[in-house]
Predict the 3D structure of the following.
Amino acid sequence: MKIILNILITLVIFLSSINFSFAEEEKQTMVDVRQQAMQAMWTRLERLATLIALPGDAVTSSDGSTIIISNQNKMEPLETYSLIHAREAKQDGIEIYNLLAQVQDFWPRKTSVAHVKSTNAERLVWIIPEAFNRYYSDAVHASRNLNKAFEEENPESIKRSVCMLALSCGRCHAAFRKVRFDNLKKEGRGWTGNYTACWSYKNEVTLNSSAIRK
């Protein structure tokens, strides 16, 4: 009887450890998915920055080469974008919106820095979730506005929307994401949203934070 009891106890402990292991893997997988989605967004945002590039700005093309925007360039920004990146800008806009929607609910408390091995998210995400949700929602609104601008083919609206999306991302990262040099090096301006062409819009957001949603 004692032997059977010991076997049962051992079995319970073993099954519990398996369940715990699966739970840990599930949490880390959720973190990994949202990190991959964010990286995919930053890649697309950096491409979209071509639409607001000023003469002298450097842009990385689809083949990895660096192109300097010339002051002699007479093409429309959307044409320049297609030529450099071999794809339509509105496709990147759609994909950013879809990626934002995909991981919007991927921030449960069990995926905080206190519960997983690795995450770039700061504790503030879970300490002040209302603020984080507001900032995330701002990015969703900005992304939706960008897609609307693409549909309307309005150059000024497109420029403003690209900047507002970049600024919404940068503002959220500044508050809720760990800053590491390798992040900045890898993700570039898309991490901070600090594009030269966006300074006037940055002032607008400073005076009225809800401007990002307009």
The beta strands are 58-60, 66-68. The mean pLDDT is 83.
